[in-house]
Amino acid sequence: YVAPADEVPKESLKEVIRNLIPVEMELSFAPQVLAEVGDPPQKILDMSKELAVDLIVLGVKPPALFQGTSTHQSMATVCKVVSGASCPVITVRTQA
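Below the sequence we write its predicted structure tokens.
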């Protein structure tokens, strides 16, 4: 997760993300949870190169009805990551 620089997280982002992973899931590898602050697309691209990832998976909100709303920014982030990634990117759209 990357929080914009002007957004101050109120609780531990890593803990919130860890709690999204069901305890009963049988995973082949332990997930690595990262939480950063900065420009989201650039941080995602920088971390993917630093960690030499094979795949980036992004949750995508549907576009908002009006440009300039927060969900519009999410699509801009996805576009920048897909355009700049050196590995495949899978997007998973949330329900409207």
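Strands lie at 2-3, 36-37, 56-60, 89-93.
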